[in-house]
């Protein structure tokens, strides 16, 4: 599938079949996603991949029992055979920007020009995590599968702790991956605004 066609077809799927994904296909998708842009070639983004029964760890810690009992889309989402967690390391970027070719930015460690992660107007680690996540979403579409991005709203610390993620890493979000089962419902959010690009491209000036 051409890139432009994958972009056109990409949408969030929230109802999955439980059948597993071919491991070779999943590995290819994950590895390809890590070829996204990386500030300073830091490569401070990683995936923690949960499959089959392992995905319960995500749902148990990132959601509440009350939400699971009342959310109409939870059954369809919970059937996704893969949950890929996008995690990033702020410390890796601060360390990289403390090196000789980047230290002039003032974004390095606190000992070099008053930097540190709080000095970053736009944290590159989240940007890089978003790039990798978008590539995964597009790759999933191109592979004829479905995916949904799940934001980081609650349970980050217990979730990462349960999965043995080193201290200091942050959860950007999760991607549920599987085969659409046809049971999803059209999101009312699609009616909220005009088609993509309408009124959002400004030439020469706003």
Can you offer a commentary on this structure?
With 206 residues, the chain is of the alpha+beta class. It has one domain: 3-Layer(aba) Sandwich (NADH Oxidase), CATH 3.40.109. 34% of the residues lie in helices and 16% in strands. The chain has 8 helices and 5 strands; from the N terminus they run αβαβαααβααβαβ. Strands 1, 2, 3, 4 and 5 form a 5-stranded antiparallel β-sheet that branches. α1 (3-9) packs across α7, α2 runs antiparallel to α7 and α3 (55-62) runs antiparallel to α8. The mean pLDDT is 91.
Task: Please render the helix and strand layout as text.
Blueprint: H1 3-9, E1 16-17, H2 23-33, E2 45-51, H3 55-62, H4 65-70, H5 74-78, E3 82-88, H6 90-96, H7 124-142, E4 146-151, H8 156-162, E5 170-180
Antiparallel strand pairs: 1-5, 2-3, 3-5, 4-5
CATH homology-level superfamily? NADH Oxidase
Tally of alpha and pi helices: 8
Number of separate structural domains:
1
Task: Give the assembly state of these chains.
Answer: single chain
Shape: globular
In the CATH hierarchy, what is the class?
Alpha Beta
Spans of at least 5 consecutive residues with low confidence: none
Number of distinct beta strands: 5
Q: What is the CATH-assigned architecture?
A: 3-Layer(aba) Sandwich
Strand % is: 15-25%
């Amino acid at each position: 599938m051409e890139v432009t066609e994958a972009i056109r077809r990409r949408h969030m799927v929230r109802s999955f079949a439980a059948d597993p994904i071919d491991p070779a296909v999943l590995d290819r998708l994950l590895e390809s996603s890590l070829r996204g842009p990386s500030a300073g070639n830091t490569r401070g983004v990683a995936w923690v991949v949960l499959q089959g029964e392992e995905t319960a760890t995500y749902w148990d810690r990132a959601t509440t029992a009350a939400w699971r009992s009342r959310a109409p889309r939870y059954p369809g989402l919970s059937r996704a055979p893969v949950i890929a967690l996008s995690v990033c390391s702020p410390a890796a970027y601060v360390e990289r920007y403390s090196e000789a070719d980047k230290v002039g930015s003032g974004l390095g460690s606190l000992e070099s020009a008053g930097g540190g992660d709080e000095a970053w107007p736009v944290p590159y680690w989240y940007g890089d995590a978003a790039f990798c996540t978008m590539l995964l979403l597009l790759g999933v579409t191109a592979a004829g599968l479905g995916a949904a991005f799940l934001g980081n709203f609650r349970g980050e610390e217990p979730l990462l702790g349960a999965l043995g993620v080193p201290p200091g890493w942050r959860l950007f979000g999760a991607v549920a991956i599987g085969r659409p089962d046809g049971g999803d419902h059209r999101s009312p959010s699609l009616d909220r605004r005009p088609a993509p690009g309408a009124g959002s491209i400004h030439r020469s000036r706003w």
